[in-house]
Amino acid sequence: MAREECKALLDALNKTTACYHHLVLTVGGSADTQDLREELQKTRQKARELAVATGSRLTVALRDRGLATEERAEFERLWVAFSGCLDLLEADMQRSLALGAAFPLHAPRRPLVRTGVAGGSSAVAARALSARSLRHEAGGDFDVADLPELEREVLQVGEMIDDMEMKVNVPRWTVQARQAAGAELLSGVSSAGAISVEERAGPCDPSKALAATVFSAVLLVAVALALCVAKLS
């Protein structure tokens, strides 16, 4: 039960972190708006809430000395995936902080980058927050006022990473994957190869065989006529 709960939380964190990464890429671009800055704030708060919940449950599970070997190995794999999500979240929050400071919306010190990207980002944020639609309620100076809060949250995520590494010592290089590296690619290549072999080994197409026969007959007639003309001349 605990493992399934951790998997569900980690899947939600992974999805939210990916959506946040997508939103951060739009900051400072031609599609940057006040709504985007508010969506970034809501998405990162959801990601931090999921990170706290996931980290606490994984910590309790991995500090259990009575955990079976196979069960511990599975929790360690989840822990490594969780650590990767936190690293990506921290990096994207730092990028959002730098871009938000460099590209204020209402008192720009430099023009927005004309990336050619168009359209809103509400659908991505709604997916991260598991909501059908979002209500934007931020004030006119939200993008500038949110920067100090974002800076504090970046520090909190960094402290969370340090704290969890002190509580649970799971070196990433000691965790073994459940399958060999590139197994998905190898299986895809082998299946594609089997399909191509079956196609080559299949029965001959009658229409293609007839066309080849007619072409051979025409070629033989042309050669015979050429020989006759050569003898007559």
Automatic annotation (TrEMBL):
Is Transmembrane helix one of the keywords? yes
Which keywords appear in this protein's UniProt record, sorted alphabetically? Membrane, Signal transduction inhibitor, Transmembrane, Transmembrane helix
Record flagged with keyword Membrane: yes
At the top level, the lineage of the source is Eukaryota
Query: Where are its TM segments located?
Result: 209-230
PANTHER family xrefs:
R-SEVEN BINDING PROTEIN (R7BP) HOMOLOG
**Homology family:** Belongs to the RGS7BP/RGS9BP family.
Quote the protein name from its UniProt record. Regulator of G-protein signaling 9-binding protein
From which organism does this entry originate? Answer: Mesocricetus auratus
